[in-house]
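[audit] Reproducing an earlier prediction to check determinism. Same input, same settings, fresh worker. If the tokens differ from the archived copy the diff job will pick it up downstream; this log only records the rerun itself.
[audit] input (482 residues):
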Amino acid sequence: MATPTYVLTLPLKTTVWQEHILEKRLNIGRNIYNACLGEAWRRYKYMTRNPQYWQAVRVEKGKERNRLLNNFKEQYGVRRFHLNMYVQNMGRKFRQNIGSQMAQNIAERAFSAVEKVMYGNGKTVRFCRVGEFYSLEEKTNKTGFRYFPEQQHVEWLGLTMRVLLKANDEYAHIALQDRVKYCRLLKKVIRGKNRYFVQFALEGFPPKKRNQNHSDDTEKRVGIDIGTSTIAVVSDTKVELTELAKGLANDEQGKRVLQRKLDRQRRANNPDKYNADGTINRSNREKWVQSQNYLKTKRKLAELSRKIVDKRKQKHNQYANFVLSLGLDVRVENMNYKGLQARAKKTEVSKKTGKFKRKKRFGKSLANRAPAMFLTILDNKLKAKGLELKRIDTAKVKASQFEHFTQTYVKKTLATRWNHFEQGDIQRDLYSAFLIMNTKGNLREVDVDRANETWNNFFNLHQQEIERIKHLNKKQLCSIGL
């Protein structure tokens, strides 16, 4: 049975000659990954050419369908076990740099990529380019890349690297008292330089930090209505509507500037690679020219992207801690973010302008704000306390349409940002979060009696929040409707 696991990341003290060996082994791992990915993909495509396979796919879901599909996977070798057998020879060839268990782990990573396509979670697989393979891991802490707590260093086939563990890092010292399941080598490019880290997969739950102010009341409810770029939070003591991952706007603008500059340099260096209308000339098979200024801009963009990723994760962790300080009964709408990312399929013409409506949806906002990542972080923090994030049935509750006073559903356009009641106007996202907070235990309907009891408190806190937003000394959130 799988036990709970959490990760601790610490830097490694490496010398130049050790870094050269680490780069060599990462490149060997990349070659093994690409070889396994190509073999698994070849077997899968060969299996899909059989018409009987698609007949089995169309069979009604059940034991019979599973039996038929498993037979095909066994026949064509499209199984994790078969890829582990395939990688054995490569493991023997590179045994001085890559252990057998690590080679099997690489093969399983490659098979997982093919599995995503097999089960409809992707369209194709992508091979890893030179310099873009950033991690290697073992299956246990007994062989290969492993940690020795007494000496506080890791050993890996002739390499001994000290783990930089600060004496005053109380969290890390407590965490390393738990059993180390396995270790992972992680490479990061920080300010243009390669840095190497060890990630410990530790058994159990992460230790509690001293400055953590999470609530201890599992009965206190918190309702969350999360959008593509905003988040509305409602509890008995706090009502807030704010940007998700607040403070990334300047970095995102800088990233767009560098992306446009990179495109201009690419076009200037390769004029023959583009058609007259600006599209790529597919018939030109010459090598792409990359100038020194182009590579410099590329490095700047990579560094800025890294900072955005780290800042976004930090902001999500901070806001998740804020939410848990309000209560531990956290409820949220179950959203299909993949559907929101996809382009619209239907071609429509605007009645006002007569032009085609754009098919883009919320892909850029979701990539920048990462709401699904926030919910994952929040859920992990709750699981560490033995709880979980409660996801309501969106189709049954219909929080954006329901009005608890009349107990009716009123459809509203996306542009309608306010609900009008006798007591006053209520912002739509905040009202949805209020209804989510007041759902019943089955998470399929709103508890109207509880909503009526908590209405006056919510209304007062709502008015305070709207006044706070009005007095902000910055551009108003576009989705609020002020």
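[audit] rerun output stored. Observation attached for the diff report: The chain has a mean pLDDT of 90.
[audit] end
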